[in-house]
């Protein structure tokens, strides 16, 4: 994938992913009631963006962290979707 993404673009994508992580963390610490769907979706997108960035600037430790983060966020997202479907929420 690195042949298709410039170093500048990879850095920009990684920075956006990092901003999403920070925003989700801040939200989790400030929200009176955490929206699990939103929280996990933002974390998943952040992890994916950082994994894209790592395809250009590879670092094994960061790759393992982001892959685990994406898996956990995916699991949380699926649980939140199931819970909403069970409750019959449309939002």
Q: Major β-sheet, in short?
A: none
State which percent range the strand residues make up: under 5%
User: Whole-number average pLDDT?
Assistant: 94
Report the principal-axis shape.
elongated
- Radius of gyration over C-alpha positions, nearest whole angstrom: 15 Å
Number of structural units classed as domains: 1
Order of helices and strands: HHH
Overall number of strands? 0
Distance between the termini: 35 Å
Low-confidence residue ranges? none
Pfam families: CBU_0592
Protein name: Permease
Domain CBU-0592-like: 11-84
Keywords: Membrane, Transmembrane, Transmembrane helix
Give the arrangement of secondary structure elements.
Elements: H1 7-30, H2 36-54, H3 60-87
Organism: Sphingopyxis terrae subsp. terrae NBRC 15098
Domain CBU-0592-like: 11-84
Pfam family, one: CBU_0592
Your description of this structure?
The chain has 91 residues and is mainly alpha-helical. It has one domain. Helix content is 78%, strand content 0%. It has three helices and no strands. The model has no long low-confidence stretch (mean pLDDT 94). Residues 11-84 form the CBU-0592-like domain. InterPro entries: CBU_0592-like. Keywords: Membrane, Transmembrane, Transmembrane helix. Pfam families: CBU_0592. The chain crosses the membrane at residues 12-30, 60-78.
Keywords, please?
mainly alpha, 0% strand, 78% helix
Concise structural overview:
This protein has helices at residues 7-30, 36-54, 60-87. It has one domain (7-89).
């Amino acid at each position: 994938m690195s042949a298709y993404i410039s170093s500048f673009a990879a850095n920009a994508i990684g920075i956006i992913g990092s901003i999403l992580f920070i925003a989700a963390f801040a939200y989790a610490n400030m929200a009176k009631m955490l929206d699990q769907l939103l929280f996990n979706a933002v974390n998943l997108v952040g992890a994916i963006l950082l994994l894209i960035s790592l395809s250009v600037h590879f670092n094994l430790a960061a790759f393992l962290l982001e892959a685990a983060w994406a898996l956990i966020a995916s699991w949380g997202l699926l649980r939140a979707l199931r819970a909403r479907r069970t409750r019959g929420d449309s939002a």
